Amino acid sequence: MTAPEALSDASATPPAAPAATSWREGLAVYLQPRVLIVLLLGFSSGLPLALSGSTLQVWMKEAGVDLGTIGLLALIGTPYTLKFLWAPLVDALHVPLFTQVFGRRRGWLLFSQLLLIAAILVLAMADPARSPWFAAFAALLVATASSTQDIVVDAFRVESLPESEQAAGMASYVAAYRVGMLVSTAGALFIVSGFESAGLARPSAWMWGYVVMAALVVIGIITALAATEPAQSKGADAATHAQNAAERVFHAALGAFSEFLSRKDALAALAFVVLFKFTDAFSGTMTAPFVIDIGFSKVDYAAIVKGVGLAATLIGGFAGGFVARRYSLAQSLWIGGVLQAVANLSFSWLAHVGVDQWALALAITTENFTSAIGTVIFVAYLSALCRNPLHTATQYALLTALAAVGRTYLSSGAGYVAKAVGWQVFFVICVLVAIPSLILLAWLQRRGHFDELGPVRI
Known about the structure:
Largest sheet: none
C-alpha cells in the first residue's frame, strides 16, 4: 500500500460518536480558537464578492456606462462557478516560498489574498467611463483571485475543524461572509459618498473606496498568519512528497472523482446534493419580483427583505449550528429540509394578505431563518463527504458546483410557473419541489449512507 493510499484509508475511517452535548457546550464551541479563525476567514471570503458584482455595477452606472455593458458584468461571476477546474492545482501544487514557510493550505491562502489585494488595486485604478472593458477585465481578476481564496478557505475549514466543530465553524463562516458582503456593498457606497462629501471628485472617490476595500483584505492575511496548518494537510503533503507536480495534479483530479464515485450509492448522493436546496432556489429566484408585484415599494424591499432578512439569516445560521450539534447528521438534514420547504407557505400567506409591512417582515424572517438553518446543515453534510485531505479542495469545489445546478439551471423556469398559476399557488409548488430531495434523504438513510460517513454528531 502506497503512502497516499494509506492516508486515504485512514481519513475514511469513521470517527467515534461523541456524547450528546448540552446547549451551554453548544454555545461554547463558537469561542474555540479554530472556529474564530474560520469566522474571520468567512469575512475575508465575503468581502470581494460585491466588488466585482453589485458595487461595480453602481460605479459603472454613475460613470455613464450603457446598461447593455453593465448587464454583461454578470459573466464576471464565472470563476465562482468554474473554480473546480483549478481546484486540483490548489490541492496538488506548492507555491514557491509560501508553501515552504507557511505550509500547504496557509501558503495558498496567503498567496491568494495577496493576489486579491493586487487585483482590487488594479480595479481601483481603472476608469469605467473611458475604458469599461479594462474595468471588467480587472473585475474578472478580482473574481478569479476571490474564488481561489474560497477554494483554500473551504479546504482549510474542513481539514482544520474536528467533526464536533464543523457546523459551528460553518455557521460562523456564513455569518461573517454576510458581514463581509455588507461591508463591500453598503459599506463601500457609504465610504465613496464620504469621500465625495469631503471634496474628492467622483472618479477619485471610487478609486479610494476600492483602495479601502483592498486594505480590509489584510484582516484575512492576519488571520492566516495567526492560524496553524491543519494536521491533515501536513499528512497529505508528506504522503505526496515523492511525486512530481504533474503527478500530484493528476492524482488530485482523478482521485477526487474516482474516490467519490466508488462509494456506495454515489449517484444518489450526488442527486441529493443537487436537489436539497432546490426548494430555496426555486422560490428565491422570484422573491424580488413577487414583493414588488404585489405592491411593496423599493424602499420596503431594501429595508425589510435585505435588512430584516440579513438579521434572520445570521440568527438562522447559528441556530443551524445548534441543531447540527444536538442531532445526528441525518436527523439534522430532515429538520433543515422540512423547515426550509414549509417556510415557503409564509409567502403564500403574504400573497393572500397583500401589502402589509409587518406581514412582509414575518414572511421574510421565516424564510431566511429556516433557509440559513438548512444551509449550515447541508454544508456540514458536504464537509462530511470530503474526508480525504489529498483532494479536499477539489471534492468540495465539485460538490458546491453541483449544488449550484438547482440555483442556476433548474430554477430558471420559476417565472413561467408563477405567471401560469399565480403567487399563492406558486409558493405551494415551491414546497412540493422539496419532496424529491426528502425521498432521496429517506432512501439514503435506509441504505446506510450516513452510517458509512460515520456516526457524525456535528
